[in-house]
Amino acid sequence: MADSTATPCDIMLFGALGNLARRKLIPAFYQLDRAGLLAEGSRILALARRNLDIAAVHRQLLGALEEFVNPEEFDRSAAEGFLQRVDYQILDFNNTEDFQVLNTWRDGARNELIVYMACPPAMYGVIGRNLHAVSCCTERTRVVVEKPIGHDLESSRVINDELGAIYKESQLFRIDHYLGKETVQNLIALRFANNLFASQWDQNHISHVEITVAESVGIEGRWGYFDKAGQVRDMIQNHMLQLLCLIAMDPPSDLSADSIRDEKVKVLKALRKVTPDMMANYVVRGQYTAGTSTGVLVPGYLEEEGANKRSETETFVALKVEIDNWRWSGVPFYIRTGKRLPEKLSQIIIHFKPAPHYIFDPDQRHLANNKLIIRLEPDEGMSLRILTKDQGLHKGMRLRQGPLELTFSETFDAGRIPDAYERLLWEVMKGNQYLFVRRDEVEHAWRWVDRIIQNWNEGGEPPKRYAAGTWGPVASIAMITRDGRSWYEDA
Ligand SMILES: NC(=O)C1=CN([C@@H]2O[C@H](COP(=O)(O)OP(=O)(O)OC[C@H]3O[C@@H](n4cnc5c(N)ncnc54)[C@H](OP(=O)(O)O)[C@@H]3O)[C@@H](O)[C@H]2O)C=CC1
Ligand SMILES: O=C1O[C@H](COP(=O)(O)O)[C@@H](O)[C@H](O)[C@H]1O
């Protein structure tokens, strides 16, 4: 299925001067324009409440491009050309009457309308109702909303109900930017285009799976948001469970959005509920203390700007997840994610079971498991660890483990790998929902993580401390060691 060209769009960007817009969305639109993917006649209306004129807004957005676009990809004249597509409208999102002005901007335009809500989720319903009140949207309007959808199952239902009262599910594009990452998409190709893997992808052949999403950064001045969320809501409920679903789901019957989403939902429904008695062996939460991160001394979580010194919010989580279905029975998924870990590293390791009958040197038995390492970051690619005979007459039948390596940037001359937001915006412009999250996915994910949070709230242990720049609390190592395994470290 090759990419088709998007039709011209009018994009209303609510929250256009906020953090996400500056860091990700404006740079992504710029890159799409530079690549010739913003169809002729496409326009962006930046919406925010700051009293600025268009020249000042252009200056701010140019500053964002200078700061957040890779310097090798920043071209001033292309940036200025792109900004010609951007208008600005001062708007209080709460004020229905103000929304009339949006119709003036549209002025009967025939471009597809995309509404991007880059603002707090509590505003989604308000904005939707106000747009509806001034008849700005049609049944063709696409509406993009950001994660997190709510704070728990109940609040996500409220937001989904508010949106659902105005828009059909087919109009809603719920972003999880991990689904826009090149390697994440490649999971679908890897699994369902290669029968070699498809035929080995179950409890008969796989012993366990690891998913690590580690960040070296802390909370980046986002205390207000992060302390209410914590790592389970910020990363597990969405990105990590989406990765797990793509690894664990059954083959969809085709590549349509609903076929893929149906399979992901089946996985979410099969996740074993974490009961209070499981917490000690299946869940570890941590919070960073001061330490050294990438060579620099950094404060602990409780010393971050704006911190409440008694917060028990977790900045690290490790979980052992069981999937109660035929394919994955007895195959634990160990997942961990945290802030202020030693490096920015995202990888999935599929550990295959050893051959049923081992005939080589008993001392080398520990080598006997093939591993498939899928790297999301850094150096997107894959590496299959296989066993070969060590070369040389004197080595006899000594085994050696080596990689079959595929680093995308080296193997394929595919040019730059687009940022996740570029791909997602491009798919919105084309109206493809397969990289976006359906309502029931969001709600099943909340249902599962809510239990963990509830167990903590009802007398769970406080987070275990770990020094910034380390791999989280030792308890996360103990969790996997108890099963006779260890977190994968590249040799
Ligand atoms: N930042 C990030 O890295 C990520 C953010 N997200 C999600 O994206 C969304 C936006 O986040 P972020 O950009 O960080 O938030 P910000 O607070 O930085 O930006 C939100 C913007 O919305 C504007 N706004 C809020 N209320 C109103 C109102 N009543 N009328 C007019 N403007 C209003 C704010 O204006 P003002 O500046 O005047 O207050 C601000 O510019 C959130 O849902 C967040 O969870 C998701 C993933 C990552
Ligand atoms: O959604 C979020 O993701 C980022 C990590 O994204 P990445 O693409 O840099 O891996 C995380 O830092 C942030 O806390 C979270 O809200």
Automatic annotation (TrEMBL):
Assigned EC number: 1.1.1.49
Binding site for NADP(+): 49, 92-93, 147
Glucose-6-phosphate dehydrogenase C-terminal domain span: 189-487
Pfam short name (any one): G6PD_N
UniProt pathway annotation: Carbohydrate degradation; pentose phosphate pathway; D-ribulose 5-phosphate from D-glucose 6-phosphate (oxidative stage): step 1/3
Active-site residues annotated for this sequence: 239
Protein residues bound to substrate: 177, 181, 215, 234, 339, 344
One MF term in the entry's GO annotations: glucose-6-phosphate dehydrogenase activity
Glucose-6-phosphate dehydrogenase NAD-binding domain sequence ranges: 13-186
A GO cellular component entry from the record: cytosol
Catalytic activity: D-glucose 6-phosphate + NADP(+) = 6-phospho-D-glucono-1,5-lactone + NADPH + H(+)
Keywords from the UniProt entry: Carbohydrate metabolism, Glucose metabolism, NADP, Oxidoreductase
Function, in words: Catalyzes the oxidation of glucose 6-phosphate to 6-phosphogluconolactone.
NCBIfam families referenced in this protein's UniProt entry, alphabetically: zwf
PANTHER family linked to this entry: GLUCOSE-6-PHOSPHATE 1-DEHYDROGENASE, GLUCOSE-6-PHOSPHATE 1-DEHYDROGENASE G6PD
Annotated family: Belongs to the glucose-6-phosphate dehydrogenase family.
Protein name per UniProt: Glucose-6-phosphate 1-dehydrogenase
UniProt organism field: Marinobacter adhaerens
